[in-house]
Write a sequence for this structure.
């Protein structure tokens, strides 16, 4: 898994387009999302890690924040490498370390998205089952999160360790890998693509089941209660929308591109177009770090109310000690209510 494209013979009529796209357009786009994502995720960290992990949902959302922050730190390296600064040493760092961190963070985040959908499914559709009560435990959620990070690190870190060959005359990330490293690279690509499609199908199943359950509830109970619950559950589908927009195009393209890489033919125009499509759709996946904070705001009541509370407090300027005490009491009351409501309604 590499950012740096392999150096092969390209058709002359596509070289200029490729150069402009890779060395001018993509660095600008990555720079923009890097700045926006640092601001948005900085706010998310500032809010989220003041909130106690009182539910499985908050545990998974916090781990998504960590994955996004790690993923975000790879973007400046991508920009510097695409602009041609730092020479081969920067490219070596990208191939060996930051590209691996990028994919590790991305697929870990995807896994937590699927865990959130599963947690919501058991919370809403199977709320009375023993499995639901078991999965809602914070300790269980923390254990699952730890296992997720452990499995993903076991899968991805060998891609960094096995990128250990001397610098080739014609640079490419694949040339830096040992024979075992190439085989592990290909295997890890297919495993990660498999993880994505399993996560995607799981999310479709969970949210379809939730939609059907909400519709049946709407027909059975009073309209006001059902409407509130329907509006609450509708926000869940923002996660699925972001997931489809950011990750589905890349993984469709990734399968085709990886299968093409197995052939040792010269770099044809068809392969070149696939490479450009892969880079464009990879950018959509990278854009996910800007959209995830929106998901936190929509899905998590505690996050939403804490953020709005911070904004409100900054806009208020109490003129007396009595007003300050009143504001403090109001804040404590709101925080207590939000902690009680979180995890029960999103």
């Amino acid at each position: 898994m590499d950012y740096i494209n392999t150096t092969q013979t390209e058709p002359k009529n596509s070289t200029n387009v490729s150069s402009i796209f890779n060395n001018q357009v993509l660095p600008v786009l990555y720079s923009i999302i890097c700045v926006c994502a640092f601001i948005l995720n900085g706010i998310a960290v500032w809010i989220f890690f003041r909130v106690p992990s009182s539910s499985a949902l908050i545990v998974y959302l916090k781990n998504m924040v960590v994955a996004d922050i790690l993923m975000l730190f790879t973007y400046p390296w991508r920009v510097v490498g695409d602009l041609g600064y730092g020479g081969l040493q920067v490219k070596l760092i990208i191939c060996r370390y930051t590209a691996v961190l990028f994919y590790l963070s991305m697929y870990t985040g995807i896994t937590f998205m699927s865990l959130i959908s599963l947690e919501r499914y058991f919370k809403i559709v199977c709320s009375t089952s023993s499995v639901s009560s078991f999965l809602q435990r914070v300790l269980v959620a923390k254990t699952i999160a730890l296992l997720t990070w452990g499995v993903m690190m076991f899968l991805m870190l060998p891609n960094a360790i096995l990128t250990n060959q001397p610098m080739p005359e014609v640079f490419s990330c694949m040339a830096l890998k040992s024979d075992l490293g190439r085989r592990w690279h290909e295997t890890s690509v297919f495993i990660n693509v498999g993880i994505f499609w399993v996560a995607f199908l799981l999310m479709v199943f969970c949210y379809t089941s939730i939609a059907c359950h909400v519709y049946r509830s709407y027909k059975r109970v009073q309209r006001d209660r059902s409407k509130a619950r329907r509006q609450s559950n509708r926000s869940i589908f923002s996660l699925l929308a972001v997931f489809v927009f950011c990750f589905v195009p890349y993984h469709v393209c990734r399968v085709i591109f990886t299968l093409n890489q197995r052939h040792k033919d010269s770099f044809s125009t068809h392969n070149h177009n696939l490479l450009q499509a892969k880079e464009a759709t990879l950018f959509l996946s990278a854009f996910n770090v800007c959209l995830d904070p929106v998901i936190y705001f929509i899905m998590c009541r505690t996050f939403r109310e804490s953020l709005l509370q911070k904004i409100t407090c900054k806009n208020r300027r109490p003129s007396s000690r009595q007003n300050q005490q009143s504001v403090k009491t109001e804040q404590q009351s709101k925080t207590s209510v939000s902690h009680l409501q979180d995890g029960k309604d999103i």
